[in-house]
Each structure stands twice: as C-alpha cells, then as structure tokens.
Specification:
CATH architecture of chain A: Alpha-Beta Barrel
Oligomer: heterodimer
Number of helices of chain B: 8
Helix content of chain A: 25-40%
Largest sheet of chain A: 5 strands, mixed, barrel
Radius of gyration of chain B: 19 Å
Order of helices and strands of chain A: EHEHEEEHEHEHEHEH
Strand order of the largest sheet of chain A: 2-3-6-7-9
Number of strands of chain B: 11
Number of domains of chain B: 2
CATH topology of chain A: fumarase
Structural class of chain A: alpha/beta
Strand order of the largest sheet of chain B: 4-1-5-10-11
Shape of chain A: globular
Structural class of chain B: alpha+beta
Number of strands of chain A: 9
CATH class of the largest domain in chain B: Alpha Beta
Strand content of chain B: 15-25%
Radius of gyration of chain A: 17 Å
Number of domains of chain A: 1
Chain lengths: 199, 288
Amino acid sequence: MEHRLKTPIHEEEIRRLRVGDIVYLNGTLITARDEAHRRALEMHARGEMPPVSFRGNGVFHCGPIVKRVGGEWRVVAAGPTTSSRMEIFEDRFIEAFRPAMIIGKGGMGDRTVRACSEYACVYGAFTGGAALLAAEGIKGVREVHWLEELGMPECLWVFEVEDFGPLIITIDAHGRNLTREAMERVASRKEAIIASLGG
Amino acid sequence: MSSLEKVLEDTAVELLRRASTELRQEYVEALRGALETCEGSVGRSQLEAIVRNIELARRRSEPICQDTGIIGFIARIGEDFPIRAGLRDILVRATRRATEEIPLRPNAVDLFRGNTGDNVGVEVPILHIELVEGDELELTALPKGGGSSNVAAHSMITPGLGIMGVKRFVVEAVARAGSLGCPPYFIGVGIGGTEDYCMLLAKKALLRPFRVRSPDPNIAALEEELLERVNELGIGVMGLGEGPTALDLHVEVAARHPATMPVGVVMSCWALRHASARVTREGRASFL
C-alpha cells in the first residue's frame, strides 16, 4: 500500500503501516548520524533538550552535501547512510525523543524493532546511493545545528520535504523486520552453499 | 607552478569529478539490464531509483551519492616522467579544489581533531605509486564510500583448506555484508601475498574492466564460480531479497608463504566509481 504522510505524524497513522508499504513523507525531516545521536542522548541524560524537536517528525540517517549559495543552503546530495551503525543508540533515541519515522538504508536490528513497537515508530528504507533523487524531495533547509562542532555530514540539518520517497517500510510498529527476514533466508542459503563446497 | 604541474592538478580534479558524477557506461547498462529482468516490485522500485539517480547525476554533473568517499589515487609513473615525488602535493591541491568545485563531501576525519573540512588529512588523499617504464603518467582516482568499506573482509585462512577455504570465506563475507554496503555489489578478491597485500590486490581487482575475466583460466573459472555462488545467496538489491546480489567479481592473486593463505574481499556498492587518465611528459592529458 502507498501512503502520503505529513508531519507531525500521529500514532494511529504509524500503527496503520505494515512492512512492504511505500511511504512518501511531507513536512519535517531531521538528519542525525552517529555523533548527533550520541550528543542528543548525552543532553537528554543531563536533562537538557536538543535544539530541535524530533517528536512526530522523520529522522534521517544521512550526511548530506550542502552548499551555501548566496546566503541560502542548497542541498546537493542527500542519500541515506548505513543505519546499522545507529543501532546502539536508536532504541534510547526513540524512547527519549519520539520520532515517528527513522529513515536510512540497510535496515536495523532487534532493539530498534522493539522500540518501534513500544513507542509507535517505523523504519523506512530509502535506496542507498540515490542521493540526487533524495535531494529532489528536499525543498529547503529550515535550520542547521551543531555544524561548527560536528561538521557537514554529522550535524543536524532540519529539512522541509515534499513527497520524499519512495520509502519502503521494512520495520513496522508491529514487530516485523523485512530486512531481517530477507537476511535469514540469505543465512540458510549460505549454509547450503557452504555445504556444497565440501570440506 | 610549472605548466605540467597545472595540467596534472586540473586532470586530477577532472578525474574526481568524473568518478563521483558519472558511472562507466557498462555498469549503467548492467543496472538497466537488471531492472528489465527483475521480477519483484520491491527490487524494481530500488533499481528504478538507482537508474533515475544515475541519469540525474550525469545531467547535472553532481555527485551520484552524497558519500563521495575517502579520496584515493593510484599513480603509475613512467620512470622518465618529470614529476615524481612532487605528485603528492599536486594531488592534495587537486583534492581541495575538487571538494570546493564539484562539490565533494568532506570525509577526512582526524583521529583527535575531527573533520578536516577539505578531504585532506594525514596520509589522505591515499596514494599508491607504481614505477613503470616510459615517460607518461597514468592516474586513477578511486574514491571509496564508507558503507561498502565497512563490509570489507580479511582472513588468514588455514592453508590446508586450500581453494575450498577461499571460496567458503568469500561466500561468508558477502553473506555477512548482506544489505549493508548498497548491493548489487562489485566484488574484488585478493588471494596470496601477505596480510596487507591481499587487500590491495582485492582493491585493484575492482578496477579490471567489467566482466573481463582473468587471463589465467584457473582464476577465470574461480571468478565465474564465486560470482554464481554469491548471487545464489539472494541478498538482492539493497538487501531486500530481489534482483542481483553482485554484478561482477574479480580475483587477483600473488604467491604466498607456504604457511599462510591471506584472503581479502573488497566490496563496492552499485556505484563503482573510478576514472583514469594518461598524461604525457609534454602535458597532454587523455581520459581513458
């Protein structure tokens, strides 16, 4: 099924999504990678708030190329990065900041799946490497935070997006993980291939 | 700056531009072919996005992927080519310029000081130099993205396992890479040499022309078999289980110590980015 969603996305809209669905996102999408996750969680632990609210918004595992053109930021290329690196943070991140959707590539693990079920969040996979296609859906940069400290790929870019996608839901809020199911099939085929090699 | 230095700098900038914005035609055709034969709708949606993205990049001369990689060059310097040790400084200048002009994402991170902001850092751009006969320079730009670098694999296999052990390790390495490095992959396998050298062989294996087999019939047969085996894994485009897992696989070998069997596996995402040029000692550049 195809869905067009607008942020802030409500819990019931998230719970309606199922793995394999395709989503186009409208509204606020905030980039956060390894360093931004770590820093936001450290602030949360100290009782401080990060400079932007993730609640009901999309979080994008992305380190974009952004260029300053006449006082304005222009997003040149903004594809997803490998999400599994954020697995060590994401369940705590979802619990603390309640984003509606995590977007990245390559899928995530059990901890994220549990947090998605518990706090009504989904994981949407964007085609890895399709950075210009992604940039087409980004209509503007509303804010940027931590640019000085973390640099262009790691800082928080707050994007305004329009029909950003296609995003394939590979983790839904009901405990399913499409990538993991595919990788389990790969693992069993691998055993068969290894056995056929002998030794 | 001499005029030859200027030609080299401009050529290196252009190589980085070509490598990051254009895929070689034979890779694009292979991806289009995969789209035509892919039956699943999820796999098709991913291949469609890839093909559209490649067209956008070429049309706008903008990077295919926002991860424009850590910058590396391979230089084959003719022994009568006038610039040798000075090449590093020229490539550093070219890297800074390319970062600004194309633009490339700054990807050189200092261990303690963070992102350098211009893709230049300690030992970066990474430079491999080979001295060859003649009076020309052949320069290859080979930027390498982080996602597919993280799934590289290395093992010192028990030599007694022989070629079977090598096959097993390659299949395991690709299975472990799974969805993480943006498949369909291009795979380079290096066998023999030493623990470090097999990785360089694997990296260089990526540069051999698409679907051209090794001239050694034993190695060519190994390439065919491994390519078939890794595709049987069924990882599929973006690890979603549909479409090809690997588009090509090359093996390069070196002799080994009798007590060791070093194996390196280097993977490239679907966007296998590299570009080469030849520069004569008079300063004429031709792109290959």
